[in-house]
Amino acid sequence: MLLVLAALTTLAGAAHAAITDAELAGLRQQRDAGAQTLRRNLIDAINRLDASDPPKLIAELIFQFGDFRYAEGGSESALPAVEAALELARQTGDASRIASLDALAGQMLLALRRQSPTSARERIERALQMQRAAGNQIELARQLSAYATLLQEADEYAAAMRLSNEAMVIVEGSGQKMNTVTFAVLYGRVELLRSVGDAASALAAAETLLDRAAASGNPEFIGTTQHAVARASRAVGLKSRAAQLLEASHQQAKEYADPLGQFLTALDRVNLAIEQQEFDIARQWIERAMPLRDAIDDPILRGRLDLADARVAARESKPAKAREAYVRARDALAPSAEIWLVAMLREADADVLVAEGKRAEAVDTLRDALNLRVESERQLQRGVLAAQGDLHRLSEREFREKQLEQEARLRETQLEATEQRLLNQRLIVAVVALAALLAGSVAVWQLQRARRFRRRADTDSLTGVLSRSAIEGTAVARFRRARIENRPFAVLLFDVDGLKPVNDRFGHARGDELLQEVALVIARGLRTRDRLGRWGGDEFIVLLDSADLATARNMGERLRQSIVDGLADAGFADGSCSVGLAASVAEDGSFAEMLARADAALYTAKQGGKNRAVVAGD
Asked: Which residue among 296, 339, 350, 587 is least packed, with the fewest CB closer than 10 Å?
């Protein structure tokens, strides 16, 4: 007990009136709701802790306070109290609280880089196993989401996605309204989608989350989601919108008294302004972020702000100030030795050298920076491709085609970066221009070639509709999005009746014509947002977005009749098609389960005389 109170000496003052169970329950409710008063009330309760308070109460209160401090970037000051409370919780024997505190301590150590990543991760994973055994699903979802975020930052996307999926299943099944756990899980999924290169899905998920956050009326949820939408918008090239959202998010964080949120939005706004060569705007946002700098525990974040300060000061022709900021950034970032950070350091150093009039050194430094940047991008894309391969089960050929396309984009990016940076520094010489011209020709050719390969992989060569791999990936994504957005979703499976007799009697060329006609008839009857793919052989699949069971039933029967009529007009008098359909239900844990029900319905249609549309479950 004394150990706990000693650990709190930097956080609390003298003890006062005892804390009641009702007050602790109220704090728990405020935490779940993300109440703006939580911080003040937590500090007040911590200040009143006394050695005579029940150990279980002390452990829970410190966990709530530590979790709050971790979320706002204050792990450095809260970690000793969390570790002390963990020892106290072990004495009480509360397995769920032990797991919560142990996981939180591991997350703090991993974020602060106080311990080897392997040791910290082993600690978190043991805590997760303990929480699973304890059966506290809400706490488990919270910890899964937090750990997934840390793994994402370590570029371990596939592992992060698995944890995110587990957390999503828990919150979707809980039936709870928007609270801190639900928000953390949904927000984490947005960031994960953005990190694995699916910017369009990330933006759609972020927009949906923003609607839900706005409906909740919680300013923290709204501001944080605005930040997520801004990042996703920037990733798809909507930079003006990103700037507006970052400014709105910063204002929300300011009103909510969230220093970490203010710092992060300001840092992103600074970097966006630098990217757009708006150095006066960048300076304004640096000045907003600087007062918050020393309150941020993460040295990487502090160093990145110093880097931005150095680059902007260099453009303002203030070499002494630029060099001073660069040295601060170097001292903070160099120990990490991560290649992308080293590349940023070298780029900033080149800017400072130009401001100091050392142009020859700046050219050499910039070349080093570009080489590091390219290698960093290669590492990132390899990680993203590996994650996509694991998540979407890409075939070896598809994986190689994606790799080729990424390499082409990388070369194009390298060319643009080289030209832009050297142009801005006015250091282009004839040999560099010639090399850039040659590199550009190769990059454009490779990009065009990669795009052709991608189109071939996504399209069925016979019918022109989506290939199986393409429609399968689309189906999984749309099923997941429909669940998140609580929209209906349905699938139709078509099996052409009597294709084999056509092939046997008239040859495969005639059979191919029949399949092409079926694909054409189905495509004509679909809505703009629906998707058609060839599932294999004589089977086709249709994804119906925002379609309930009645809509799917009507469309299945209508398309079946259209196929019969279309085949007759094309000279296939006996042509017909069997249809199996299923609409998403709460029990469907994945698209595969939904598809299995549609497949069973199709089998019933074939066994019942063919040329019928059967609904799963009828």
From this structure: 587
